[in-house]
Amino acid sequence: MADLKAFLFDVDGTLADTERDGHRVAFNLAFRAYGLDWDWSVETYGRLLEVTGGKERMKFYVDHFLNGENVPDNIEELIPELHQAKTRHYTELLSTGAIPLRPGVERLINEAREKGYRLAIATTTTPENVTALLEHTLGTESIDWFEVIAAGDIVPAKKPAPDIYDYAMEKMSLSPQDCIAFEDSINGIRSSGGANLKTIITINDYTRDHDFSGASIVLDQMGEPGRPFSVLAGDAGEAEYLDCELVEYLHQKT
Ligand code: XBP
Ligand code: MG
Known about the structure:
This protein is of the alpha/beta class. It is built from 9 helices and 7 strands. A 7-stranded mixed sheet has the order 3-2-1-4-5-6-7, with helices on both faces. Helix 3 crosses helix 4 and helix 4 runs parallel beside helix 6. The chain is globular, with a radius of gyration of 18 Å. The model has no long low-confidence stretch (mean pLDDT 97). Magnesium ion binds next to loops.
């Protein structure tokens, strides 16, 4: 195995629990602003997460949940508009500091930077959402810590397709053996796995029952000193939280 050079992070569900109290809320605010009688409950949203990408998710909802009722005639043109409104609501929500990073994320990123690892983002969400999250959690300067922010429509085929990871690695002139991915969902690991990347999973409430076979390890969270993670699958040795040493060990392991 080549030496580890770069950490590639998913955003939603991995860096922060953005879906239930962030994206979902922003979608509902956009629906209301447009006078639509749509409301995505926590449960419904869990089912809609099967489809990545906000525009794709709305289309899926129209096609599979509405049976032609409550669907405006101009839905095709409306979806991009609704999505822009949703992005505005979402970034406004982030600017209030409503969504913190998950445990251990800031610590691991800081340690990775100190050790000289290269960092990148590979996500399905809209680029503004990534920069807003970074700005309001790690600070504006943190945007530059990430060599590539591969996001949104930059590749036509979103996760579970491997394209977004392939894109990030191509931009960095790195191969999958040089990198490790951090994900939280089945669509995420299908994407990273499809790009031949080893993947560390931290689950969340929406993804705990997903099939993570193929993951290097499955954790409930990255953990912190004194606030240990639970290992759901795989081997963390004596470690109690995810640090660079454990990431390196998992990367080297066959
Ligand atoms: C993230 C997503 C995104 C967000 C919404 O998936 O599926 O669609 O929910 O973002 P992943 P947009 O964590 O696997 O990248 O509305 O900006 O598309
Ligand atoms: Mg995710």
